[in-house]
Design brief:
By secondary structure, this protein is mainly alpha-helical. It has one domain. It has nine helices and two strands; from the N terminus they run ααααααββααα. The protein has helices spanning 2-23, 48-64, 73-79, 82-86, 94-98, 113-135, 158-172, 174-183, 187-191, and strands spanning 144-148, 152-156. Strand 1 and strand 2 form a beta hairpin. Helix 1 (2-23) packs parallel to helix 7 and helix 6 packs across helix 7. The model has no long low-confidence stretch (mean pLDDT 87).
Length: 202
């Protein structure tokens, strides 16, 4: 999970810092994830599941804090799940989050802003599923089906999914991508996978 932790921290910090800078151009508004007054009329605010995620994070932090102790914004950012941080790359938020701010924050190799968002969203969709499988100790060696953008039904082998993980890290921070490729404990297993005990020899 180390490689995923690197991705998750980089992703949430990049989105958060980019949106903080963007919303700073709209004086008088609150936190970018909590106050919709900065959004232009063509944009969309969070859907209800996203709002529920934010409120749930706040509530859990309040329950974990001493009475009267305020919940800090950094705690909320860290508490929100990987699935939440995928949301700003969804088509719903193209006019509110992506085009005004986030497109400039990710070096996605694609010809235009919409294609860049779609490519990042597709990668994060696959990686969110992989992360959940790893976290719940589900089998990941064999390819499994993904329903991706547009309702397409695809299958990605594990090495392709790992390449997606490294790609997204490099789109955020190339140096971090190089570090992961040099220090990953997962990559050697993809190159030389373990043999199941009791499996017949060659």
């Amino acid at each position: 999970m180390t490689d995923f932790r690197v991705l998750e921290v980089l992703l949430r910090n990049r989105i958060d810092s980019t949106m903080v800078n963007h919303v700073g151009q709209h004086p008088g508004t609150g936190e970018w994830f909590d106050d919709p007054r900065w959004i232009e009329s063509t944009g969309h605010w969070w859907d209800q599941p996203a709002i529920d995620s934010i409120e749930r994070a706040k509530q859990e932090l309040r329950e974990q804090s001493a009475p009267g102790q305020p919940v800090r914004r950094g705690q909320i950012v860290a508490k929100l799940s990987f699935g939440f941080w995928k949301r700003p790359t969804h088509a719903r938020y193209e006019e509110s989050f992506w085009l005004p701010a986030l497109d400039k924050a990710f070096a996605v190799p694609a010809p235009n802003a919409v294609a860049r968002r779609e490519k990042l969203f597709d990668h994060l969709t696959v990686l969110n599923d992989l992360r959940n499988r790893v976290a719940h100790h589900e089998p990941i060696c064999k390819p499994w089906r993904f329903i991706v953008r547009g309702g397409r039904d695809v299958m990605y082998p594990l090495d392709s999914q790992y390449k997606m993980l490294v790609n997204v890290i490099e789109w955020i921070d190339p140096a971090a991508g190089a570090w992961v490729k040099s220090n990953s404990t997962a990559l050697p297993l993809l190159v030389d996978p373990p043999v199941r005990l009791g499996a017949p020899g060659p």
